């Protein structure tokens, strides 16, 4: 949600739980806790009547599962979407990752201190000149 005047985020989030017990336990555990210097207020939303019931499967109407895991789905269960890399969840890990990537790029383009090495040349196939004229090139072993 954004503030109408400043268009900045109000810091509000809505979380959908599969069952009431999980929602109530989370609300009790998180309400009035401090996180990143801000006090979190958690409460169970009051139904305004506009949202349809999300506790039942959209495809078959049974409770206990949602449509992506419906056993009656003719196409079978869908794979869960791949999320972001969990190694990049925190800011410090993201910074470390970016620094390593930058260093790797710099090392790739920086010439080695001894100049080109002979070992690099041995890996590349060399074209040997032939006394016989042909359109095709022969590679040396």
Automatic annotation (TrEMBL):
Recorded GO CC terms: U12-type spliceosomal complex
Limits of the RRM domain: 1-47
Keywords from the named record: Metal-binding, RNA-binding, Zinc, Zinc-finger
GO BP annotations listed: mRNA splicing, via spliceosome
The CCHC-type domain, residue ranges: 57-72
A single GO molecular function term of this UniProt record: RNA binding
Record bears the keyword Secreted: no
Region annotation Disordered: where it falls in the sequence: 99-141
GTP-binding is among the record's keywords: no
Record-given protein name: Zinc finger CCHC-type and RNA-binding motif-containing protein 1
Biological source species: Jaculus jaculus (Lesser Egyptian jerboa)
């Amino acid at each position: 949600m954004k503030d109408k005047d400043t268009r900045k985020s109000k810091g509000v989030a809505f979380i959908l739980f599969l069952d009431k017990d999980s929602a109530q336990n989370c609300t009790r555990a998180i309400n009035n806790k401090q996180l990143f210097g801000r006090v979190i207020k958690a409460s169970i939303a009051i139904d305004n009547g506009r949202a349809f019931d999300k506790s039942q499967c959209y495809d078959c109407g049974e409770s206990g599962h949602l449509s992506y895991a419906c056993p009656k789905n003719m196409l079978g269960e869908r794979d869960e979407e791949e999320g972001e890399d969990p190694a990049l969840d925190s800011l410090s890990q993201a910074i470390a990752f970016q620094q390593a990537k930058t260093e790797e790029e710099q090392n790739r383009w920086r010439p080695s201190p001894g100049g080109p090495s002979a070992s690099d040349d041995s890996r590349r196939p060399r074209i040997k000149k032939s006394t016989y004229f042909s359109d095709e090139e022969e590679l040396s072993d």
